[in-house]
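User: Predict the complex with nicotinamide-adenine-dinucleotide.
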Amino acid sequence: MTSESSFGHVIGGEEVDSLDGATFDSIDPWLREPWAEIALGGKADADRAIAAARKAFDEGPWPRMGFTARGAILHRLADLMEEHAAELGMADTRDMGKPITQARDNDVSRSALNFRFFADHARLSTGEVLPMDAGHHTYTRFDPAGVVAAIAPWNFPLMLETWKVAPALAWGNTVVLKPAEDTPASATILARLALEAGMPAGVLNVVHGYGPNSAGQALTDNPAVDRITFTGESGTGKIIARAASAHLAPVSLELGGKGANLVFADADLDNAVDWSIRAIYTNTGQVCLAGSRLFVQRPVYDEFLSRFVAATEAMVIGDPKEETTQIGPLASEEHYRKVKSYIDLVPSEGKMVTGGLGEGWVVKPTAVVDIAPDARLCREEIFGPVVVVVPFDTEKEAVGLANNTPYGLSAMLFTDNLHRAHRVAAALKAGTVWVNCFFIRDLRAPFGGMGDSGVGREGGNFSREFFTEPKAIVMQIDRECQSPQPAPTSVVAF
Ligand code: NAD
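Assistant: Here is the predicted structure with nicotinamide-adenine-dinucleotide placed in the model:
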């Protein structure tokens, strides 16, 4: 295989095979055949990557070089990613069937932006100076935490990997990234580009492999890791939290979701339909934030549903490598089987108004109505292009329906009533609420979920908190001023 279809680990500045030479195939889910050969890492490879990251952190220049020099390398990496957008985008498209326009145009540019944003955010970040009485002040420092293990899912491979790697690197940490086994290729390309951008050896390492009893678990079990940042299923998050607790490594967990989408009768219906379609069918519904539970106020229910179904049926399904394709196959056979099991449930739980199974591993954009809010299709994360549409009468009822889930990642609402917008946004159990829009993000804002959707927040200063060790430095600045009996409220003696 060529380097276009062969992807190794990247450890200590070199692309390497597994120590035992093992490999696995990455399957193109449209063709349903292997397209790339990947190094299959195990514990020994993960430990080797951690050792390289540890050495680069303890002895190398990266944590010591300062924000400007680090930022210059991260910006250079972003430039290279933009230059290699076609290659990076096609890697994700071949690995998981994401339509190429989404992979190349959206995900790669957003991934490059992750590096630009966090490089600048870290450089421009300010600490606090706390003036104290009695001739002292306290100031804060944010020192890099150390070695970060970043474990990523397959649905936005490059984008979610860089959402973790970029802030970790910008704050001076070194990283071992484990991409999902279904989507390994773009991570190796990213690490190759990082070396080309001038990143020192061992700063960004990539190790491929599976989760349990494989490279993933080895990363979470190793006490030389100082931070674990994970995005994936809620069940996996709980396993990782347990592993991290054994050596008290702080964890950030971005987990599953079952997003509610509330459409009130006073909403701009064109806008609501447009965003609702994107909210559930973008990335073939394989989105943690997906608006997979659509609650529509009864006076506009029929009108909304007929427009929604018409827009759904206009979507282009096909080969994800084609520029016009909007819906590709599901990411893998295993995932197809999972989503199919929910499609098979439809006759017993509700009525399908559009969609169903397609060719190969395709599930067509599907909408289900006449369904009880406590049905499995309404409560469980399907992670496919399947939406349930449920009518409601009152605002209180809508909020109750929306919050009736163990998840709490995202929600959206459509209304032209300003008071309702604020009231409902405050009442929804979700880490992010969108009003009359969806997917719009400010990278300074907290991102994450509550309940089964995760622990912690990332973005802006929230990423800084996680990827650094904040330190308080208390200084005497005026000896004359020191009172023998200080009793001010801001100064306390332990
Ligand atoms: P997953 O939990 O199966 O796997 C995620 C990663 O964890 C993979 O790299 C996998 O190899 C690794 N892993 C699995 N078991 C492990 C273990 N015991 N120890 C260490 N690593 C292990 O998730 P997935 O199927 O890849 O991703 C889909 C899920 O991710 C969905 O639930 C989705 O909602 C969620 N997700 C959440 C967000 C968010 O921001 N909250 C974003 C995207 C996806």
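The chain is about 40% helix and 20% strand.
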